[in-house]
Inverse folding.
């Protein structure tokens, strides 16, 4: 048992079976304000909002399947999921980290303004939609597998990396309309053969040295979390997608 | 057009400095102040500031040939579009001649059979509590303590709040004026969707923070500092479409509160990306309740549209504590003119049908109803309450108190009154201290007037008027209109 200065147990285990999300979250927040540093949730069956609004450095490990809006509005905590996440994971997140050892549903990282999200496998539609950045706050979303359509839609900032590691040799990415309405940030697509289709607001380019540095940093983290060889991943060909115009709607109006 | 009386003009050039639309200029050769009249938008800034009253702003008499169908506005709009190929933008609310139902409703007063109350000698209550009310209350046994757990409630000293106007659309000085006035008058103001400047965190207890589809400036501190959180689904001036603050208006300070880079377009997409159904709305409502520990009421604001009543019922069932309806005449800092002028329904009809629907379903107590869009006077407020509203939001009337002359140029960012602009030379024209005083004065006079009207009806608390449509009668409306409003014809 690890205890802090006040002698409080710093790790806490909660069996989440048969607990409502409201009660579960109340217990997590209560523990957080009592100085607990690590919480282990067992038997999570779809409870929503786990870690929503959590605002202190704290680690929550989830065994099972957390429900929608995991870590929404989260500020500085770290969530690790041993299982799949549902829709809205990291919704409007401010800072912190979400690591999912599995798939995630739709709109992962929606409107995030900071923090890092790592998904080991695939994600649903509209991943990274409307992520934004401001000065040194940049959200990062790394997806190990593939994504459904509208990846990075309306993206206004941040870094989105799609690795495509589970594609077979020569198998094309299936994602269409990538970066539709994108007006900020950057997307790196890995393991690209072809078969992807871009939104009309996006340009394609080769990676520069500075891009590789960014990519390497987050791929290395990804590799550590999910036990991959980073060098192996980085050997794939990557392309960079960027917004053609920071003001895509600037010329829509008469005056 | 601008009429300059040469007898009075002393070439002081105050008008040259005051006009932000480049109308007046000084011709040094002739030592004369002249004007480019074609640029004038009729905001009266120069006329108000001219020290010798030399200026008169008038409608340009050079009119198109009389044509009821092809009025000047329609002709000019087509010309502009032919020149640019773009969408026409405008500011403020719908200015078309749709029926204003407030002007067809009249209030009751006591005569002989029941005495009126004199607010000068009797206490009159305008206090209003917004929030979800329980179906029934239970007391703990053997005590007077409440056993029923109450949802969070907001107390208003007057059932009038300041409607959402985002920082970026209006200036920080306007935000500060609203925040200070709300604090002083015991009501709430609303940040709009552009975030909240840290300087105004101190007014948090009287602040509603907005969460809109762009999620600008939404972070845990912002949510927790507020008294209540409003999810903006729609706006009366532009139902069904998103918003977009042009890059030119995203100054350094605006970029700080919106948390986006300076000079980029701030895009609020039409829908929330996580809301495609009532169930999804419930999810965001509860995400916000979770994020604020169930301490704050959640408002959900929609534009008044054809099926508002059904949507409102869904909103209440989804967990909204307060629902907000914004009507056809609701204003905006910038909206496509075609949407502003043609989409949505009058707020009076929306309010009446929503209130009736929620009553029929037996869930009216579960949410407060706030209306916005075209409230001009305390008379409108009182009628709205009789029609079923718990409180109203005002925006244009508040801006007029700050100097606005409703010139409808808000979208240009050049507001000569320093309200709808982020240009530092113009924004300093609003002094937050004076602004707050003028707004407080406005609310004070309205509260006196509302008390007078209540007293006249023999009512001593605004609570007793709420939804009491028997205190209303209609003038000049059709049977269908009477039926929707649930109001009888005057004389019956
Ligand atoms: S735009 Fe306003 S300030 Fe300028 S001339 Fe017209 S009324 Fe005067
Ligand atoms: S806010 Fe300014 S620009 Fe808008 S209508 Fe009022 S005076 Fe005109």
């Amino acid at each position: 048992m690890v205890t802090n200065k006040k002698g409080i147990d710093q790790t806490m285990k909660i069996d989440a079976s048969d607990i409502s999300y409201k009660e579960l979250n109340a217990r997590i927040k209560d523990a957080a304000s009592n100085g607990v540093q690590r919480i282990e949730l067992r038997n999570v069956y779809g409870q929503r909002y786990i870690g929503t609004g959590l605002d202190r450095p704290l680690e929550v490990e989830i065994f099972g399947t957390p429900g929608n809006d995991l870590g929404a509005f989260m500020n500085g905590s770290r969530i690790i999921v041993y299982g799949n996440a549902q829709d809205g994971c990291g919704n409007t997140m401010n800072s912190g980290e979400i690591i999912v050892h599995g798939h995630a549903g739709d709109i992962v990282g929606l409107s995030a303004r900071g923090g890092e999200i790592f998904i080991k496998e695939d994600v649903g539609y509209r991943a990274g939609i409307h992520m934004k950045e401001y000065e040194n706050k940049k959200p990062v979303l790394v997806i190990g597998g593939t994504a459904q359509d509208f990846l990075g839609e309306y993206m206004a900032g941040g870094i989105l990396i799609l690795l495509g590691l589970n594609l077979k040799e020569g198998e094309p990415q299936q994602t269409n309309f990538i970066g539709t309405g994108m007006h900020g940030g950057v997307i790196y697509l890995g393991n690209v053969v072809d078969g992807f289709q871009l939104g009309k607001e996006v340009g394609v380019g080769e990676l520069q040295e500075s891009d590789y540095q960014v990519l390497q940093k987050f791929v290395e983290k990804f590799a550590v979390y999910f036990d991959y060889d980073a060098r192996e991943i980085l050997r794939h060909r990557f392309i960079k997608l960027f917004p053609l115009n920071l003001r895509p709607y600037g010329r829509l109006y008469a005056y | 057009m601008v009429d300059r009386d040469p007898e009075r003009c002393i070439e002081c050039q105050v008008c040259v400095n005051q006009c932000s639309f480049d109308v007046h200029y000084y011709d040094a050769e002739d030592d004369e102040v002249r004007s480019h009249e074609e640029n004038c938008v009729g905001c009266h800034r120069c006329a108000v500031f001219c020290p010798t009253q030399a200026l008169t702003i008038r409608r340009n008499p050079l009119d198109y040939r009389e044509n009821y169908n092809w009025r000047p506005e329609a002709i000019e709009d087509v010309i502009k579009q032919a020149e640019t190929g773009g969408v026409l933008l405008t500011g403020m609310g719908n200015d078309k001649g749709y029926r204003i139902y407030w002007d067809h409703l009249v209030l009751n007063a006591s005569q002989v059979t029941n005495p009126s109350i004199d607010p000068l000698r009797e206490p009159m209550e305008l206090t209003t509590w917004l929030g979800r009310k329980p179906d029934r209350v239970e007391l703990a046994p053997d005590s007077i303590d409440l056993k029923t757990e109450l949802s969070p409630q907001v107390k208003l000293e007057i059932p009038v709040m300041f409607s959402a106007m985002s920082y970026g659309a209006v200036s920080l000085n306007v935000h500060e004026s609203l925040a200070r006035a709300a604090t002083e008058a015991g009501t709430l103001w609303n940040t709009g969707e552009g975030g909240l400047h840290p300087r105004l965190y101190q007014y948090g207890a009287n602040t509603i923070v907005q969460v809109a589809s762009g999620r600008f400036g939404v972070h845990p501190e912002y949510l927790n500092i507020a008294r209540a959180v409003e999810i903006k689904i729609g706006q009366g001036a532009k139902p069904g479409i998103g918003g977009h603050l042009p890059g030119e208006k995203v100054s350094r300070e605006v970029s700080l509160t919106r948390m986006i880079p300076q000079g980029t377009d701030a895009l609020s997409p039409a829908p929330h990306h996580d809301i495609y159904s009532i169930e999804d709305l419930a999810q965001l409502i509860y995400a916000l309740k979770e994020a604020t520990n169930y301490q704050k009421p959640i408002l959900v604001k929609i534009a008044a549209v054809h099926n508002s009543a059904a949507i409102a019922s869904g909103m209440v069932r989804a967990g909204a504590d307060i629902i907000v309806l914004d009507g056809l005449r609701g204003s905006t800092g910038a909206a496509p003119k075609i949407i502003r002028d043609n989409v949505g329904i009058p707020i009076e009809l929306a309010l009446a049908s929503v209130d009736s629907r929620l009553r029929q379903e037996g869930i009216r107590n579960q949410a407060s109803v706030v209306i916005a869009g075209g409230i001009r006077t305390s008379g409108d407020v009182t009628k709205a309450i009789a029609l079923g509203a718990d409180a109203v939001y005002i925006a244009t009337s508040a801006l007029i108190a700050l100097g606005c002359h409703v010139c409808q140029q808000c979208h240009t960012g050049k507001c000569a009154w320093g309200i709808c602009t982020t240009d530092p030379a113009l924004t300093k024209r609003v002094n937050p201290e004076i602004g707050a005083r003028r707004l407080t004065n406005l609310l004070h006079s309205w509260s006196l007037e509302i008390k007078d009207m209540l007293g006249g009806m023999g009512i001593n608390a605004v609570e007793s008027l709420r939804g009491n449509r028997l205190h209303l009668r209609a003038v000049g409306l059709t049977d269908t209109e009477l039926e929707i409003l649930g109001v009888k014809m005057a004389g019956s």
Q: What stands out?
A: The domain at 103-253 of chain A is CATH 2.160.20.60 (Pectate Lyase C-like).
